[in-house]
Amino acid sequence: VTAAERPGTLGRMTATGAVRRANAEDAATVGRLLDAFNREYDWPTPGPEWLAQRFARLRGDDLVVLLAGEPACGLAVLRFRPALWSEGLECYLAELYVAPERRGEGLGRALLTAALDTARAAGSDTIDLGTSEDDVAARALYERMGFTNREGPDGPVMYVYERDLDG
Amino acid sequence: VTAAERPGTLGRMTATGAVRRANAEDAATVGRLLDAFNREYDWPTPGPEWLAQRFARLRGDDLVVLLAGEPACGLAVLRFRPALWSEGLECYLAELYVAPERRGEGLGRALLTAALDTARAAGSDTIDLGTSEDDVAARALYERMGFTNREGPDGPVMYVYERDLDG
């Protein structure tokens, strides 16, 4: 049984519907939500059709997408890989998005809860993510849900550093 | 040709020897350096033999280790996966370590330069890493080498958030 096939403990109900794992038939929905996410923040996007195809191709052990709402209006993207420091997996929460008109209903929290359940069920020891200083609502949610941006209790904060390689 | 097999543009000489890609025969060296890294910072470690075996098992497309010095006294650990937003790979610099007695000789910079070359040669669009606020020397090196911890020019800083899942 692979991480993608394992049932996990999803089906968690919210006021607005269950969180469920995206399957091959959800590719267009996943592409639409990812594209909307980037357009909202004026980040470049390859477009919903391209993203749908990319999801359809990568979906599996190392890429799991969760959808919230019916019709789906939020998603979480999880990436998995074998950890170097343990026998388990490490899980990276690559994206967490709820459409603007559906915020404040608890969908982000439902997605994050389902993400933790999914990561645990897949055999992950840890989950991590990157977010920016000014994403105050998301940071508050992560902190309420047990995440920390400090290295140990009262330790220094941890930064993401990144660099493009097209040069 | 896989990312692990591709020659890249290594062999960059430093005052103290070339940076080279760790192969199966280097497993004990990799285990020793990873273990020393964690012991130096009082982080838990499964021990050098366990780490050597883990490296030997995971070594390949998604895990590349670079070694610096002869005998090796520094390493960089790179993880690769297909990007969701492009056809390329994303590269994560998981570890960068130089033994304390060999710091200040440019080995960290040589490893980081080789890491960028390796990531580019493997087809990565981006490289990212997490580091803590108080790791001042490493942060200065990352910044000199073109990394930023800000989302866009003068944008907000980016944090790593993480959570253990064993509970």
Q: Can you describe this structure in just a few lines?
A:
Chain A is of the alpha+beta class and 167 residues long. In chain A, 30% of the residues lie in helices and 29% in strands. Chains A and B meet through helix 2, strand 4, strand 5, helix 3 and strand 6 of A and helix 2, strand 4, strand 5, helix 3 and strand 6 of B.
Please give a structural write-up.
The structure is a homodimer of 167-residue chains. Chain A has a 6-stranded mixed sheet, sandwiched between helices. In chain A, α1 packs across α2. With 167 residues, the first copy, chain A, is an alpha+beta fold. Chain A has helices at 27-40, 48-58, 107-122, 136-144; strands spanning 13-14, 17-21, 63-68, 74-82, 89-98, 124-132, 158-164. Mean pLDDT of chain A is 91; it is low at 1-11. In chain A, β5 (89-98), α3 and β6 (124-132) form a beta-alpha-beta unit. Chains A and B meet through α2, β4, β5, α3 and β6 of A and α2, β4, β5, α3 and β6 of B.
Briefly note the structural class of the backbone of chain A: alpha+beta
Number of strands of chain A: 7
Oligomer: homodimer
What Rg of chain A is obtained from the alpha carbons, in whole angstroms?
16 Å
Low-confidence stretches of chain A: 1-11
Q: How are the elements arranged and paired?
A:
The structure is a homodimer of 167-residue chains.
Chain A: E1 13-14, E2 17-21, H1 27-40, H2 48-58, E3 63-68, E4 74-82, E5 89-98, H3 107-122, E6 124-132, H4 136-144, E7 158-164
Parallel strand pairs in A: 5-6
Antiparallel strand pairs in A: 1-2, 2-3, 3-4, 4-5
Helix pairs in contact in A: 1-2
